[in-house]
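Lab channel / #folding
Pinned by the channel admin:
"Please post every new chain as: sequence first, then the structure tokens as a reply. Keep commentary short and put observations after the output so the thread stays searchable."

First post following the new format, from NK:
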Amino acid sequence: TKKRRNNGRSKHGRGHTRAVRCTNCSRCVPKDKAIKKFVIRNMVDAAAIRDISEASVYDSYGLPKMYAKLYYCVSCAIHSKIVRNRSKEDRRDRVPPPRFRPKEDRSSGQNKANS
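Reply from TO:
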């Protein structure tokens, strides 16, 4: 009997995939088996954004962002609730979960289109 259709990996046809280190515990995990998460965060915390925008000379200064690709081993991803265990019937559901997209400012988008 098989628990998963892909044996917990996405390595179809490849003999070997390189190992990556888990962000949380530094365990070596095959790259195709690791749970991946791409995080985009503001470098400035929310409390300081208003202070910086008020003190800034530029009226529309885009704050720098931090881009990070996080890799988790299966046990850390379960422990930190990035993924959950699912029942046998639910495991057959291969539809990805709905994606969270941050709302973009409509006013800034209209200004760019007009100019």
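NK: The two ends are 62 Å apart (CA to CA).
TO: also worth noting, The first helix runs from residue 46 to 55.
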